[in-house]
Write a structure and sequence with these properties.
Blueprint (H helix, E strand, L loop, with lengths): L3 H18 L8 E7 L5 H4 L4 H14 L3 E8 L2 H11 L5 H4 L2 E4 L2 H5 L17 H4 L4 H7 L1 H11 L1
Parallel strand pairs: 1-2, 2-3
Helix pairs in contact: 1-8
Length: 154
């Protein structure tokens, strides 16, 4: 299990590569994020302190040139639901209205059709079809690019 900061760093690389690989060719800069809490344990949830949660929101809203269209928290359970009810009030109203707590996949399907979702979320797609599994390899192949960024910042 990774720390929440290692997970954030990983997703920063994935988001950077996704921006350059996919969103650069489209006119839209919107995205929908699905957080599947199925299988989460309390120890993982305790890493998301209010400070960490605000850092994540700050990163997504201020540091990345994309527009969050929606955030879906699926299989969140009562603890996550309670925490989000409190945390949402710290966010701008526009973002609050884009957060959906879906206690099961059927509720998620009210917003997103099963045809674009993996089977793990009650959809019809296999993981290979639903997830951009090539992104980690693309990130690793960009080592020279990231090395130049490090040199540039020194």
């Amino acid at each position: 299990m990774c720390s929440v900061y290692e997970t954030m760093a990983y997703h920063a690389f994935v988001m950077d590569e996704a921006l350059r690989s996919y969103l650069g060719d489209t006119e839209s800069n919107e995205f929908v994020t699905i957080f599947n809490f199925d299988g989460w344990v309390l120890r993982q949830g305790l890493q998301f302190t209010p400070r960490v949660a605000l850092q994540i929101v700050d990163f997504v809203l201020k540091s990345v040139p994309i527009r969050p269209a929606a955030f879906h928290l699926v299989n969140a359970g009562s603890i996550i639901d309670f925490m989000m009810r409190i945390f949402k009030h710290l966010l701008p109203t526009k973002i609050q209205n884009r957060i959906f707590i879906d206690s099961n996949c059927a509720q998620l399907h009210e917003h997103l059709p099963p045809e674009i979702l993996p089977k793990s979320l009650g959809g019809v797609l296999e993981n290979e079809e639903a997830f951009r599994t090539e992104l980690p390899d693309k990130i690793r192949s960009q080592e020279e690019f990231y090395q130049k960024l490090i040199e540039f910042s020194d």
